[in-house]
Amino acid sequence: MNDSQRFGLIEAKDAGRQAADAPPARRATGNASPAPKLPSNMQRALSAVRLTLPFIQRILPLLDGNIGTAVSNILAPHSHTVPHPSPVDLAPILDGLAEVQAQNLQLRNQIAEQNSSLKGVEEQLETVREATDRNAQEQQEMLENLNAVGKKVTRFGLLATLLLAISVLLNVILFLRIKGVPW
Predict the structure, then answer these.
(1) 153 or 80: which leads in pLDDT
(2) d(C-alpha 95, C-alpha 101), whole Å
(3) What pTM does this model have?
(4) Radius of gyration for the alpha carbons in the chain, expressed in angstroms and rounded
(5) Are the C-beta atoms of residues 62 and 70 closer than 8 Å to each other?
(6) Is residue 165 pLDDT above 80, yes or no?
(7) Distance in angstroms (rounded) separating the CA atoms of residues 60 and 74
């Protein structure tokens, strides 16, 4: 059954429903029976689109440049019979799936090993970081101590130089007195 025959059946069913839904004529009251309902413009447009849809589907490939395909679609009869599916051999797919699962398990194991080794490296890095911090703090303390000792040595050197200068001055004074040089 093609689309135009289907559409004709649909229109016939719609007309039958409209006739069944119409109220009986009221001749006793003097009212005339209402005129049959005509399809609206929208319904007419939709029915026209429904009729042309199969042709449009066959012509659309022409726009893509597949003229041969479009002509063969238009000329070839389309049967709606579904061929019986042949049994599919799923063994290769199942084997491939089992192989993929085995590889996935192997990758998970490798990732777990790498994670544990990374944790070990992190712990070692933390230990090295702590040792470096301790060394830096000790070096800072040693630098402060060295500066303090340096200041003390400088003071001692100045005091020793001053005492040496006083000693030399006293020696010169004593030497001159012994020689009898008046002042």
Answers:
(1) 153
(2) 10
(3) 0.35
(4) 55
(5) yes
(6) yes
(7) 11
Give dist(CA 167, CA 181) in Å, integer: 19
Q: How many Å apart are CA 175 and CA 181, to the nearest integer? A: 9
- Tell me the one-letter amino acid at 133: D
The 3-state secondary structure of the chain reads CCHHHHHHHHHHHHHHHHHHHCCCCCCCCCCCCCCCCCCCHHHHHHHHHHHHHHHHHHHHHHHHCCHHHHHHHHHCCCCCCCCCCCCCCCHHHHHHHHHHHHHHHHHHHHHHHHHHHHHHHHHHHHHHHHHHHHHHHHHHHHHHHHHHHHHHHHHHHHHHHHHHHHHHHHHHHHHHHHHCCCC
Write down the residue that tokens 């192997």 correspond to: 106
Q: What is the mean pLDDT of the chain?
A: 79
Q: At what angle do helices 41-64 and 67-75 cross, to 10 degrees?
A: 130
Domains of the chain, residue spans: 3-21+39-75
Residues 6+ apart with CB under 8 A from 33: 25, 26
Banded model confidence at residue 59, pLDDT cuts 50, 70, 90: confident
Q: Do 54 and 3 contact (CB within 8 A), yes or no?
A: yes
